[in-house]
Protein backbone atom coordinates (compact mmCIF):
# COMPACT_ATOMS: atom_id res chain seq x y z
CA UNK A 1 0.00 0.00 0.00
CA UNK A 2 3.03 2.26 -0.09
CA UNK A 3 1.98 3.43 -3.56
CA UNK A 4 -0.92 5.28 -1.92
CA UNK A 5 1.27 7.14 0.60
CA UNK A 6 1.79 10.16 -1.67
CA UNK A 7 -1.95 10.29 -2.28
CA UNK A 8 -2.56 10.31 1.48
CA UNK A 9 -0.07 13.16 1.87
CA UNK A 10 -2.18 15.27 -0.51
CA UNK A 11 -5.21 15.07 1.78
CA UNK A 12 -4.15 17.80 4.27
CA UNK A 13 -1.76 19.54 1.86
CA UNK A 14 -4.19 20.40 -0.96
CA UNK A 15 -6.38 22.80 1.08
CA UNK A 16 -3.23 24.16 2.75
CA UNK A 17 -1.64 24.99 -0.62
CA UNK A 18 -4.92 26.48 -1.81
CA UNK A 19 -5.04 28.73 1.27
CA UNK A 20 -1.48 29.91 0.59
CA UNK A 21 -2.27 30.61 -3.07
CA UNK A 22 -5.33 32.62 -2.11
CA UNK A 23 -3.39 34.47 0.57
CA UNK A 24 -0.50 35.62 -1.65
CA UNK A 25 -2.24 36.21 -4.97
CA UNK A 26 -4.78 38.54 -6.50
CA UNK A 27 -7.46 36.56 -8.25
CA UNK A 28 -10.95 37.35 -9.54
CA UNK A 29 -13.87 35.98 -7.52
CA UNK A 30 -14.49 33.14 -9.95
CA UNK A 31 -10.94 31.79 -9.60
CA UNK A 32 -11.03 32.26 -5.84
CA UNK A 33 -14.10 30.02 -5.75
CA UNK A 34 -12.52 27.49 -8.12
CA UNK A 35 -9.33 27.15 -6.05
CA UNK A 36 -11.16 27.03 -2.73
CA UNK A 37 -13.89 24.57 -3.71
CA UNK A 38 -11.64 22.53 -6.00
CA UNK A 39 -9.03 21.81 -3.34
CA UNK A 40 -11.52 20.47 -0.80
CA UNK A 41 -13.54 18.63 -3.46
CA UNK A 42 -10.31 16.96 -4.61
CA UNK A 43 -9.69 15.77 -1.05
CA UNK A 44 -13.26 14.45 -0.94
CA UNK A 45 -12.58 12.46 -4.13
CA UNK A 46 -9.36 11.06 -2.64
CA UNK A 47 -11.28 10.07 0.48
CA UNK A 48 -13.90 8.38 -1.68
CA UNK A 49 -11.12 6.53 -3.50
CA UNK A 50 -9.71 5.25 -0.20
CA UNK A 51 -13.19 4.11 0.81
CA UNK A 52 -13.42 2.08 -2.40
CA UNK A 53 -9.92 0.63 -2.02
CA UNK A 54 -10.47 -0.43 1.61
CA UNK A 55 -14.16 -1.27 1.19
CA UNK A 56 -14.13 -4.70 2.86
CA UNK A 57 -10.95 -4.41 4.94
CA UNK A 58 -11.36 -4.04 8.68
CA UNK A 59 -7.76 -3.69 9.88
CA UNK A 60 -5.96 -1.72 7.19
CA UNK A 61 -3.30 0.87 8.03
CA UNK A 62 -1.75 3.32 5.57
CA UNK A 63 1.03 5.67 6.66
CA UNK A 64 2.86 8.57 5.06
CA UNK A 65 5.63 10.86 6.25
CA UNK A 66 6.08 14.51 5.27
CA UNK A 67 9.50 14.73 6.93
CA UNK A 68 10.99 15.16 10.40
CA UNK A 69 9.70 17.96 12.59
CA UNK A 70 11.71 17.58 15.84
CA UNK A 71 14.71 15.36 16.55
CA UNK A 72 16.20 16.17 19.95
CA UNK A 73 17.69 13.47 22.18
CA UNK A 74 14.88 10.97 22.84
CA UNK A 75 12.19 13.15 21.26
CA UNK A 76 11.65 12.52 17.58
CA UNK A 77 8.49 13.87 15.98
CA UNK A 78 7.64 13.35 12.33
CA UNK A 79 5.00 14.95 10.18
CA UNK A 80 3.50 11.47 10.06
CA UNK A 81 0.04 10.62 8.73
CA UNK A 82 -1.89 7.52 9.84
CA UNK A 83 -4.96 6.22 8.02
CA UNK A 84 -7.12 3.49 9.54
CA UNK A 85 -10.91 2.91 9.63
CA UNK A 86 -11.45 5.66 12.22
CA UNK A 87 -9.40 8.34 10.46
CA UNK A 88 -10.88 7.31 7.10
CA UNK A 89 -14.38 7.98 8.42
CA UNK A 90 -13.21 11.34 9.77
CA UNK A 91 -11.49 12.57 6.59
CA UNK A 92 -14.53 11.49 4.57
CA UNK A 93 -16.80 13.56 6.81
CA UNK A 94 -14.48 16.57 6.95
CA UNK A 95 -13.76 16.69 3.21
CA UNK A 96 -17.23 15.64 2.01
CA UNK A 97 -19.28 17.97 4.18
CA UNK A 98 -16.55 20.62 3.92
CA UNK A 99 -16.70 20.54 0.12
CA UNK A 100 -20.48 21.03 0.18
CA UNK A 101 -20.12 23.94 2.61
CA UNK A 102 -17.49 25.49 0.32
CA UNK A 103 -19.81 25.03 -2.66
CA UNK A 104 -22.67 26.63 -0.74
CA UNK A 105 -20.40 29.53 0.26
CA UNK A 106 -19.75 30.46 -3.39
CA UNK A 107 -23.36 31.62 -3.57
CA UNK A 108 -23.88 32.77 0.02
CA UNK A 109 -20.70 34.89 0.26
CA UNK A 110 -20.21 35.93 -3.38
CA UNK A 111 -21.22 39.55 -2.78
CA UNK A 112 -18.88 39.94 0.20
CA UNK A 113 -15.91 42.21 -0.43
CA UNK A 114 -13.57 39.93 1.53
CA UNK A 115 -14.30 36.71 -0.36
CA UNK A 116 -10.58 35.90 -0.71
CA UNK A 117 -9.95 36.26 3.01
CA UNK A 118 -13.03 34.15 3.76
CA UNK A 119 -11.98 31.23 1.57
CA UNK A 120 -8.38 31.46 2.79
CA UNK A 121 -9.56 30.95 6.35
CA UNK A 122 -12.00 28.23 5.30
CA UNK A 123 -9.36 26.24 3.40
CA UNK A 124 -6.93 26.59 6.29
CA UNK A 125 -9.65 25.41 8.67
CA UNK A 126 -10.21 22.21 6.67
CA UNK A 127 -6.46 21.60 6.34
CA UNK A 128 -5.93 21.94 10.10
CA UNK A 129 -8.76 19.51 10.81
CA UNK A 130 -7.36 16.99 8.35
CA UNK A 131 -3.92 17.20 10.00
CA UNK A 132 -5.65 16.67 13.35
CA UNK A 133 -7.46 13.46 12.37
CA UNK A 134 -4.58 12.00 10.32
CA UNK A 135 -1.75 12.74 12.78
CA UNK A 136 0.16 9.68 13.96
CA UNK A 137 1.44 11.50 17.05
CA UNK A 138 -0.16 13.75 19.64
CA UNK A 139 2.07 16.73 18.94
CA UNK A 140 1.03 16.91 15.27
CA UNK A 141 -2.55 16.34 16.40
CA UNK A 142 -2.11 19.28 18.78
CA UNK A 143 -0.83 21.43 15.90
CA UNK A 144 -4.04 20.73 13.99
CA UNK A 145 -5.99 21.18 17.24
CA UNK A 146 -4.64 24.70 17.69
CA UNK A 147 -5.03 25.36 13.96
CA UNK A 148 -8.78 24.80 14.07
CA UNK A 149 -8.92 26.99 17.19
CA UNK A 150 -7.15 29.81 15.38
CA UNK A 151 -9.32 29.50 12.27
CA UNK A 152 -12.51 29.41 14.31
CA UNK A 153 -11.40 32.68 15.97
CA UNK A 154 -10.71 34.26 12.58
CA UNK A 155 -14.00 33.08 11.07
CA UNK A 156 -16.28 33.82 14.05
CA UNK A 157 -14.91 37.37 14.02
CA UNK A 158 -14.84 37.53 10.22
CA UNK A 159 -17.06 40.63 10.15
CA UNK A 160 -14.78 42.36 12.62
CA UNK A 161 -16.30 45.79 12.03
CA UNK A 162 -19.04 44.82 14.50
CA UNK A 163 -17.67 44.73 18.05
CA UNK A 164 -20.00 41.94 19.19
CA UNK A 165 -18.44 39.64 16.59
CA UNK A 166 -15.00 40.37 18.03
CA UNK A 167 -16.26 39.64 21.54
CA UNK A 168 -17.76 36.33 20.38
CA UNK A 169 -14.47 35.37 18.69
CA UNK A 170 -12.50 36.28 21.81
CA UNK A 171 -14.88 34.27 23.98
CA UNK A 172 -14.51 31.17 21.82
CA UNK A 173 -10.73 31.54 21.68
CA UNK A 174 -10.23 32.08 25.42
CA UNK A 175 -12.65 29.42 26.66
CA UNK A 176 -11.21 26.74 24.42
CA UNK A 177 -7.71 27.73 25.54
CA UNK A 178 -8.61 26.53 29.04
CA UNK A 179 -9.04 23.00 27.77
CA UNK A 180 -6.10 23.32 25.38
CA UNK A 181 -3.77 24.26 28.24
CA UNK A 182 -4.82 21.19 30.22
CA UNK A 183 -4.34 19.05 27.13
CA UNK A 184 -0.81 20.41 26.61
CA UNK A 185 0.05 19.48 30.19
CA UNK A 186 -1.35 16.03 29.47
CA UNK A 187 0.99 15.66 26.50
CA UNK A 188 4.00 16.58 28.65
CA UNK A 189 2.90 14.09 31.28
CA UNK A 190 2.39 11.28 28.76
CA UNK A 191 5.85 11.87 27.30
CA UNK A 192 7.58 11.92 30.67
CA UNK A 193 5.78 8.74 31.77
CA UNK A 194 5.80 6.73 28.54
CA UNK A 195 8.70 8.27 26.60
CA UNK A 196 6.70 8.75 23.37
CA UNK A 197 3.98 10.85 21.77
CA UNK A 198 3.23 8.33 19.02
CA UNK A 199 -0.49 7.58 19.41
CA UNK A 200 -0.28 3.85 18.72
CA UNK A 201 2.78 3.39 20.95
CA UNK A 202 1.00 5.24 23.76
CA UNK A 203 -1.89 2.77 23.68
CA UNK A 204 0.53 -0.19 23.85
CA UNK A 205 2.88 1.24 26.48
CA UNK A 206 0.03 2.51 28.64
CA UNK A 207 -1.33 -1.02 29.00
CA UNK A 208 2.13 -2.29 29.82
CA UNK A 209 2.88 0.42 32.41
CA UNK A 210 -0.59 1.21 33.78
CA UNK A 211 -2.35 -2.14 33.87
CA UNK A 212 -5.77 -2.23 35.54
CA UNK A 213 -4.33 -4.77 37.96
CA UNK A 214 -1.70 -2.27 39.03
CA UNK A 215 -2.15 0.47 41.62
CA UNK A 216 -0.29 2.88 39.33
CA UNK A 217 -3.35 3.56 37.18
CA UNK A 218 -3.77 6.86 39.06
CA UNK A 219 -1.32 8.30 36.56
CA UNK A 220 -3.44 6.96 33.71
CA UNK A 221 -6.49 8.66 35.22
CA UNK A 222 -4.62 11.94 35.52
CA UNK A 223 -3.48 11.83 31.88
CA UNK A 224 -7.00 10.97 30.73
CA UNK A 225 -8.48 13.79 32.80
CA UNK A 226 -6.14 16.29 31.16
CA UNK A 227 -7.01 15.01 27.68
CA UNK A 228 -10.69 15.09 28.64
CA UNK A 229 -10.39 18.75 29.62
CA UNK A 230 -9.15 19.50 26.10
CA UNK A 231 -12.04 17.54 24.59
CA UNK A 232 -14.57 19.31 26.82
CA UNK A 233 -13.35 22.72 25.67
CA UNK A 234 -13.24 21.91 21.98
CA UNK A 235 -16.53 19.98 21.89
CA UNK A 236 -18.42 22.54 24.02
CA UNK A 237 -19.33 20.28 26.94
CA UNK A 238 -20.06 21.24 30.53
CA UNK A 239 -18.65 23.40 31.98
CA UNK A 240 -17.04 25.00 28.90
CA UNK A 241 -20.06 24.87 26.60
CA UNK A 242 -21.22 28.48 26.56
CA UNK A 243 -18.81 29.74 23.89
CA UNK A 244 -20.63 27.83 21.15
CA UNK A 245 -23.96 29.75 21.00
CA UNK A 246 -22.06 33.03 20.64
CA UNK A 247 -19.98 31.51 17.84
CA UNK A 248 -23.01 32.13 15.60
CA UNK A 249 -21.61 35.63 15.02
CA UNK A 250 -19.71 34.45 11.93
CA UNK A 251 -21.17 33.73 8.49
CA UNK A 252 -23.69 30.88 8.51
CA UNK A 253 -21.54 28.49 6.40
CA UNK A 254 -18.84 28.91 9.05
CA UNK A 255 -21.33 27.86 11.71
CA UNK A 256 -22.14 24.79 9.61
CA UNK A 257 -18.44 23.91 9.28
CA UNK A 258 -17.71 24.38 12.99
CA UNK A 259 -20.79 22.49 14.16
CA UNK A 260 -20.90 19.70 11.60
CA UNK A 261 -17.49 18.67 10.34
CA UNK A 262 -14.60 20.29 12.11
CA UNK A 263 -13.91 21.96 15.43
CA UNK A 264 -16.53 20.56 17.80
CA UNK A 265 -15.99 17.01 16.57
CA UNK A 266 -12.29 17.19 17.49
CA UNK A 267 -12.93 16.34 21.14
CA UNK A 268 -14.97 13.28 20.21
CA UNK A 269 -12.19 12.12 17.90
CA UNK A 270 -9.50 12.67 20.56
CA UNK A 271 -11.21 10.36 23.06
CA UNK A 272 -12.14 7.80 20.40
CA UNK A 273 -8.56 7.74 19.07
CA UNK A 274 -7.18 7.18 22.59
CA UNK A 275 -9.93 4.75 23.64
CA UNK A 276 -7.44 2.10 24.82
CA UNK A 277 -5.80 4.65 27.09
CA UNK A 278 -9.18 5.73 28.51
CA UNK A 279 -10.08 2.09 29.21
CA UNK A 280 -7.37 2.16 31.87
CA UNK A 281 -9.30 4.90 33.69
CA UNK A 282 -12.88 3.63 34.16
CA UNK A 283 -13.70 6.44 36.61
CA UNK A 284 -12.76 9.00 33.96
CA UNK A 285 -14.92 7.18 31.41
CA UNK A 286 -17.88 7.37 33.78
CA UNK A 287 -17.18 11.09 34.18
CA UNK A 288 -17.26 11.39 30.37
CA UNK A 289 -20.70 9.75 30.39
CA UNK A 290 -21.95 12.06 33.16
CA UNK A 291 -20.67 15.17 31.38
CA UNK A 292 -22.36 14.06 28.18
CA UNK A 293 -25.66 13.35 29.94
CA UNK A 294 -25.89 16.69 31.72
CA UNK A 295 -24.76 18.53 28.60
CA UNK A 296 -27.35 16.90 26.35
CA UNK A 297 -30.12 17.89 28.78
CA UNK A 298 -28.79 21.44 29.14
CA UNK A 299 -28.48 21.94 25.39
CA UNK A 300 -31.88 20.44 24.59
CA UNK A 301 -33.72 22.44 27.24
CA UNK A 302 -32.05 25.70 26.18
CA UNK A 303 -32.84 25.08 22.50
CA UNK A 304 -36.51 24.55 23.40
CA UNK A 305 -37.03 28.21 24.40
CA UNK A 306 -34.78 30.09 21.95
CA UNK A 307 -36.22 32.46 19.34
CA UNK A 308 -33.04 33.02 17.31
CA UNK A 309 -32.83 30.47 14.50
CA UNK A 310 -29.09 29.92 14.70
CA UNK A 311 -29.02 29.75 18.51
CA UNK A 312 -31.61 26.96 18.42
CA UNK A 313 -29.28 24.99 16.17
CA UNK A 314 -26.25 25.90 18.29
CA UNK A 315 -27.78 24.54 21.50
CA UNK A 316 -28.93 21.54 19.48
CA UNK A 317 -25.30 20.86 18.56
CA UNK A 318 -24.26 21.05 22.22
CA UNK A 319 -26.97 18.50 23.02
CA UNK A 320 -26.02 16.09 20.22
CA UNK A 321 -22.36 16.27 21.20
CA UNK A 322 -23.55 15.27 24.67
CA UNK A 323 -24.95 12.07 23.17
CA UNK A 324 -21.55 11.36 21.64
CA UNK A 325 -19.82 11.89 24.99
CA UNK A 326 -22.37 9.61 26.64
CA UNK A 327 -21.59 6.88 24.10
CA UNK A 328 -17.84 7.31 24.64
CA UNK A 329 -18.32 7.11 28.39
CA UNK A 330 -20.15 3.78 28.28
CA UNK A 331 -17.51 2.26 26.02
CA UNK A 332 -19.44 2.62 22.76
CA UNK A 333 -16.86 4.67 20.87
CA UNK A 334 -17.93 3.30 17.49
CA UNK A 335 -21.50 4.44 18.13
CA UNK A 336 -20.22 7.91 19.06
CA UNK A 337 -18.31 8.18 15.79
CA UNK A 338 -21.32 6.87 13.86
CA UNK A 339 -23.52 9.57 15.42
CA UNK A 340 -20.78 12.09 14.68
CA UNK A 341 -21.10 11.13 11.01
CA UNK A 342 -24.89 11.26 10.77
CA UNK A 343 -24.96 14.45 12.84
CA UNK A 344 -22.52 16.04 10.41
CA UNK A 345 -24.99 15.38 7.59
CA UNK A 346 -28.17 16.69 9.15
CA UNK A 347 -26.62 19.51 11.17
CA UNK A 348 -24.78 20.85 8.10
CA UNK A 349 -28.11 20.60 6.25
CA UNK A 350 -29.95 22.52 8.98
CA UNK A 351 -27.35 25.27 9.22
CA UNK A 352 -27.13 25.73 5.47
CA UNK A 353 -30.93 25.73 5.19
CA UNK A 354 -30.99 28.31 8.00
CA UNK A 355 -28.46 30.35 6.03
CA UNK A 356 -30.71 30.17 2.97
CA UNK A 357 -33.62 31.41 5.10
CA UNK A 358 -31.60 34.30 6.50
CA UNK A 359 -30.29 35.07 3.00
CA UNK A 360 -33.85 35.19 1.64
CA UNK A 361 -35.52 37.08 4.52
CA UNK A 362 -33.63 40.36 4.87
CA UNK A 363 -31.11 38.68 7.26
CA UNK A 364 -33.84 38.04 9.85
CA UNK A 365 -32.98 35.55 12.63
CA UNK A 366 -36.11 35.57 14.81
CA UNK A 367 -38.29 32.56 13.97
CA UNK A 368 -41.44 34.38 15.10
CA UNK A 369 -40.84 37.05 12.46
CA UNK A 370 -40.88 34.36 9.77
CA UNK A 371 -43.76 32.06 8.86
CA UNK A 372 -45.73 30.78 5.89
CA UNK A 373 -42.62 29.83 3.90
CA UNK A 374 -43.56 26.28 2.93
CA UNK A 375 -44.63 27.18 -0.61
CA UNK A 376 -42.50 30.29 -0.99
CA UNK A 377 -39.17 28.52 -0.39
CA UNK A 378 -39.89 24.85 -1.26
CA UNK A 379 -36.29 23.64 -1.49
CA UNK A 380 -35.44 25.20 1.87
CA UNK A 381 -38.66 23.87 3.39
CA UNK A 382 -38.01 20.29 2.28
CA UNK A 383 -34.39 20.53 3.43
CA UNK A 384 -35.50 21.80 6.83
CA UNK A 385 -38.13 19.07 7.12
CA UNK A 386 -35.56 16.34 6.43
CA UNK A 387 -32.99 17.93 8.76
CA UNK A 388 -35.50 18.30 11.60
CA UNK A 389 -36.73 14.73 11.08
CA UNK A 390 -33.16 13.39 11.32
CA UNK A 391 -32.47 15.57 14.38
CA UNK A 392 -35.66 14.26 16.00
CA UNK A 393 -34.54 10.67 15.20
CA UNK A 394 -37.66 9.79 13.24
CA UNK A 395 -37.47 6.20 11.94
CA UNK A 396 -35.37 5.50 8.86
CA UNK A 397 -33.60 8.85 8.90
CA UNK A 398 -29.82 8.98 9.48
CA UNK A 399 -30.23 10.31 13.02
CA UNK A 400 -32.55 7.44 13.97
CA UNK A 401 -29.99 4.69 13.38
CA UNK A 402 -27.14 6.37 15.25
CA UNK A 403 -29.13 7.66 18.22
CA UNK A 404 -31.02 4.40 18.69
CA UNK A 405 -27.71 2.57 18.70
CA UNK A 406 -26.37 4.87 21.43
CA UNK A 407 -29.48 4.37 23.56
CA UNK A 408 -29.30 0.60 23.10
CA UNK A 409 -25.66 0.47 24.15
CA UNK A 410 -26.20 2.78 27.13
CA UNK A 411 -28.86 0.44 28.54
CA UNK A 412 -26.71 -2.58 27.69
CA UNK A 413 -23.90 -1.07 29.78
CA UNK A 414 -26.16 -1.10 32.84
CA UNK A 415 -26.54 2.69 33.25
CA UNK A 416 -30.33 2.86 33.38
CA UNK A 417 -30.33 6.36 34.92
CA UNK A 418 -28.26 7.75 32.07
CA UNK A 419 -30.56 5.97 29.61
CA UNK A 420 -33.67 7.66 31.01
CA UNK A 421 -31.91 11.06 30.85
CA UNK A 422 -30.93 10.42 27.22
CA UNK A 423 -34.50 9.40 26.36
CA UNK A 424 -35.80 12.60 27.96
CA UNK A 425 -33.29 14.55 25.88
CA UNK A 426 -34.55 12.82 22.74
CA UNK A 427 -38.13 13.82 23.59
CA UNK A 428 -37.14 17.48 24.05
CA UNK A 429 -35.11 17.38 20.83
CA UNK A 430 -38.09 16.16 18.82
CA UNK A 431 -40.27 18.83 20.45
CA UNK A 432 -38.08 21.83 19.60
CA UNK A 433 -37.35 20.46 16.11
CA UNK A 434 -41.10 20.32 15.40
CA UNK A 435 -41.63 23.75 17.00
CA UNK A 436 -38.96 25.21 14.75
CA UNK A 437 -40.42 23.76 11.55
CA UNK A 438 -44.05 24.55 12.36
CA UNK A 439 -43.39 28.19 13.30
CA UNK A 440 -41.09 28.98 10.36
CA UNK A 441 -42.88 27.18 7.55
CA UNK A 442 -46.50 26.76 8.64
CA UNK A 443 -46.99 29.85 10.79
CA UNK A 444 -48.63 33.09 9.82
CA UNK A 445 -46.68 34.97 7.15
CA UNK A 446 -44.61 37.81 8.58
CA UNK A 447 -41.98 38.43 5.90
CA UNK A 448 -41.88 37.77 2.17
CA UNK A 449 -38.61 36.52 0.68
CA UNK A 450 -36.63 39.18 -1.15
CA UNK A 451 -34.20 36.66 -2.67
CA UNK A 452 -33.90 32.99 -3.57
CA UNK A 453 -31.09 30.54 -2.80
CA UNK A 454 -28.54 30.36 -5.60
CA UNK A 455 -28.03 27.18 -7.62
CA UNK A 456 -24.88 26.27 -5.70
CA UNK A 457 -26.71 26.72 -2.39
CA UNK A 458 -29.64 24.59 -3.57
CA UNK A 459 -27.33 21.85 -4.87
CA UNK A 460 -25.55 21.59 -1.51
CA UNK A 461 -28.92 21.39 0.27
CA UNK A 462 -30.16 18.60 -2.02
CA UNK A 463 -27.03 16.46 -1.54
CA UNK A 464 -27.09 16.92 2.23
CA UNK A 465 -30.80 16.07 2.27
CA UNK A 466 -30.06 12.73 0.62
CA UNK A 467 -27.24 12.04 3.10
CA UNK A 468 -29.48 12.99 6.03
CA UNK A 469 -32.05 10.47 4.86
CA UNK A 470 -29.81 7.58 3.84
CA UNK A 471 -26.50 8.31 5.59
CA UNK A 472 -27.44 6.04 8.48
CA UNK A 473 -27.54 2.91 6.36
CA UNK A 474 -24.29 1.19 7.26
CA UNK A 475 -21.99 0.83 4.28
CA UNK A 476 -19.63 -2.13 4.10
CA UNK A 477 -16.63 0.07 4.73
CA UNK A 478 -17.97 1.05 8.15
CA UNK A 479 -18.79 -2.43 9.41
CA UNK A 480 -15.42 -2.77 11.12
CA UNK A 481 -16.02 0.48 12.94
CA UNK A 482 -19.78 0.36 13.35
CA UNK A 483 -21.45 -2.77 14.78
CA UNK A 484 -25.01 -3.40 13.68
CA UNK A 485 -27.86 -2.39 15.95
CA UNK A 486 -28.68 -5.33 18.21
CA UNK A 487 -31.99 -5.03 20.05
CA UNK A 488 -32.20 -8.65 21.25
CA UNK A 489 -31.14 -7.70 24.77
CA UNK A 490 -33.68 -4.87 25.12
CA UNK A 491 -37.04 -5.08 26.82
CA UNK A 492 -40.20 -4.04 24.98
CA UNK A 493 -40.19 -0.67 26.79
CA UNK A 494 -36.51 -0.03 26.08
CA UNK A 495 -36.98 -0.85 22.42
CA UNK A 496 -40.20 1.01 21.66
CA UNK A 497 -40.14 4.01 24.01
CA UNK A 498 -37.33 5.90 22.17
CA UNK A 499 -39.16 5.24 18.88
CA UNK A 500 -42.60 6.38 20.07
CA UNK A 501 -41.55 9.40 22.16
CA UNK A 502 -40.50 11.62 19.18
CA UNK A 503 -43.98 11.19 17.68
CA UNK A 504 -45.57 12.16 21.02
CA UNK A 505 -43.29 15.23 21.18
CA UNK A 506 -44.20 16.26 17.62
CA UNK A 507 -47.93 15.81 18.40
CA UNK A 508 -47.54 18.00 21.48
CA UNK A 509 -45.73 20.65 19.43
CA UNK A 510 -48.46 20.49 16.78
CA UNK A 511 -51.19 20.98 19.40
CA UNK A 512 -49.39 23.96 20.93
CA UNK A 513 -48.86 25.41 17.46
CA UNK A 514 -52.49 24.99 16.39
CA UNK A 515 -53.73 26.55 19.63
CA UNK A 516 -51.36 29.47 19.03
CA UNK A 517 -49.45 29.04 22.26
CA UNK A 518 -46.02 29.44 20.65
CA UNK A 519 -44.76 33.00 20.74
CA UNK A 520 -47.11 34.13 23.51
CA UNK A 521 -45.68 36.01 26.52
CA UNK A 522 -44.50 33.72 29.29
CA UNK A 523 -46.69 33.81 32.44
CA UNK A 524 -45.26 35.97 35.21
CA UNK A 525 -44.60 33.06 37.58
CA UNK A 526 -42.56 31.29 34.86
CA UNK A 527 -40.52 34.23 33.59
CA UNK A 528 -37.61 33.63 35.92
CA UNK A 529 -37.26 29.97 34.98
CA UNK A 530 -37.81 30.77 31.29
CA UNK A 531 -35.07 33.40 31.32
CA UNK A 532 -32.74 31.06 33.20
CA UNK A 533 -33.16 28.30 30.62
CA UNK A 534 -33.03 30.70 27.65
CA UNK A 535 -29.72 32.08 28.87
CA UNK A 536 -28.23 28.58 28.71
CA UNK A 537 -28.79 28.07 32.43
CA UNK A 538 -27.02 31.36 33.22
CA UNK A 539 -23.48 30.05 32.85
CA UNK A 540 -22.35 33.38 31.43
CA UNK A 541 -23.72 35.17 34.49
CA UNK A 542 -22.17 32.55 36.77
CA UNK A 543 -18.71 32.98 35.24
CA UNK A 544 -19.14 36.75 35.27
CA UNK A 545 -19.90 36.58 38.99
CA UNK A 546 -17.31 34.10 40.21
CA UNK A 547 -14.43 34.74 37.79
CA UNK A 548 -14.65 37.91 35.67
CA UNK A 549 -15.97 40.38 38.28
CA UNK A 550 -13.55 39.29 41.06
CA UNK A 551 -10.70 39.45 38.57
CA UNK A 552 -11.70 42.96 37.48
CA UNK A 553 -12.00 44.00 41.14
CA UNK A 554 -8.56 42.58 41.89
CA UNK A 555 -7.14 44.44 38.90
CA UNK A 556 -8.72 47.67 40.11
CA UNK A 557 -7.33 47.20 43.62
CA UNK A 558 -3.93 46.30 42.20
CA UNK A 559 -3.95 48.92 39.45
CA UNK A 560 -0.59 50.21 40.69
CA UNK A 561 0.75 46.62 40.71
CA UNK A 562 2.33 45.71 44.06
CA UNK A 563 5.18 43.91 42.24
CA UNK A 564 6.01 47.11 40.38
CA UNK A 565 5.95 48.96 43.73
CA UNK A 566 9.00 46.96 44.82
CA UNK A 567 10.94 48.00 41.73
CA UNK A 568 9.75 51.60 42.08
CA UNK A 569 11.11 51.56 45.66
CA UNK A 570 14.50 50.45 44.33
CA UNK A 571 14.30 53.22 41.75
CA UNK A 572 13.46 55.90 44.34
CA UNK A 573 16.13 54.65 46.77
CA UNK A 574 18.73 54.74 44.04
CA UNK A 575 17.67 58.25 43.07
CA UNK A 576 17.92 59.56 46.64
CA UNK A 577 21.30 57.92 47.20
CA UNK A 578 22.41 59.60 44.01
CA UNK A 579 21.27 62.97 45.36
CA UNK A 580 23.18 62.37 48.62
CA UNK A 581 26.43 61.22 47.03
CA UNK A 582 26.29 63.83 44.32
CA UNK A 583 26.88 66.47 47.03
CA UNK A 584 30.45 65.14 47.32
CA UNK A 585 31.02 66.10 43.69
CA UNK A 586 30.80 69.88 43.93
CA UNK A 587 34.05 70.83 42.13
CA UNK A 588 35.74 72.28 45.30
CA UNK A 589 39.28 70.88 45.65
CA UNK A 590 39.58 71.66 49.37
CA UNK A 591 36.56 69.46 50.17
CA UNK A 592 37.95 66.62 48.07
CA UNK A 593 41.26 66.82 50.01
CA UNK A 594 39.46 67.00 53.34
CA UNK A 595 37.34 63.92 52.51
CA UNK A 596 40.46 61.94 51.51
CA UNK A 597 42.24 62.88 54.77
CA UNK A 598 39.14 62.02 56.79
CA UNK A 599 38.85 58.60 55.07
CA UNK A 600 42.56 57.85 55.72
CA UNK A 601 42.21 58.79 59.44
CA UNK A 602 39.14 56.53 59.82
CA UNK A 603 40.83 53.64 58.03
CA UNK A 604 44.00 54.01 60.17
CA UNK A 605 41.91 54.18 63.38
CA UNK A 606 40.00 50.99 62.39
CA UNK A 607 43.30 49.20 61.71
CA UNK A 608 44.90 50.28 65.04
CA UNK A 609 41.80 49.27 67.03
CA UNK A 610 41.94 45.83 65.48
CA UNK A 611 45.62 45.39 66.40
CA UNK A 612 45.01 46.46 70.02
CA UNK A 613 42.18 43.94 70.42
CA UNK A 614 44.53 41.15 69.32
Keywords:
single chain, 614 residues, mainly alpha, two-stranded antiparallel sheet, 23 helices, 2 strands, 3% strand, globular
Biggest β-sheet description = 2 strands, antiparallel
Instruction: Spell the H/E element sequence.
Output: HHEEHHHHHHHHHHHHHHHHHHHHH
Morphology call: globular
Total of DSSP H or I helical runs spanning 4+ residues: 23
User: What share of the residues lie within helices?
Assistant: over 70%
Parts with pLDDT < 50 across at least 5 consecutive residues: 475-486
| Strands, count | 2
Structural class: mainly alpha
Percent strand equals under 5%
Give the distance, in angstroms, between the N- and C-terminal Cα atoms.
92 Å
Describe the strand arrangement of the main beta sheet, using strand numbers.
Answer: 1-2
Global Rg: 30 Å
Q: Give the overall pLDDT as a whole number.
A: 88
Amino acid sequence: MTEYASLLALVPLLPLFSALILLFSKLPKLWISIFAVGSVASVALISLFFNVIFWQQSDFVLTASLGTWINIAQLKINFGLYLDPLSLVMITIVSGVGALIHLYSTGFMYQDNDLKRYFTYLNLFVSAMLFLVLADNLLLLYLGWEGVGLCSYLLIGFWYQDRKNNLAANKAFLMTRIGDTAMAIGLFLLFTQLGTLDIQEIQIKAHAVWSLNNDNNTMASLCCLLLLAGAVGKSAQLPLQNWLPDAMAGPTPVSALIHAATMVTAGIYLIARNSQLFQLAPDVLYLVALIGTFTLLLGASAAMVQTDLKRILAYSTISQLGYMFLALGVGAGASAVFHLMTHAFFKALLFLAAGALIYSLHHEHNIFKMGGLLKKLPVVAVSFAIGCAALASLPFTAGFFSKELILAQVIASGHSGLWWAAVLGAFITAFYSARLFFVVFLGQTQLSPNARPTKSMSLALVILSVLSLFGGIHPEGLKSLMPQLDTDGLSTLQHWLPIILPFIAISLAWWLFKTKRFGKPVPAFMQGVHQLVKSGWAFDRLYQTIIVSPFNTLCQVNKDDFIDLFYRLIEKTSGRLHMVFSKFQNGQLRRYNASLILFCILAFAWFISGELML
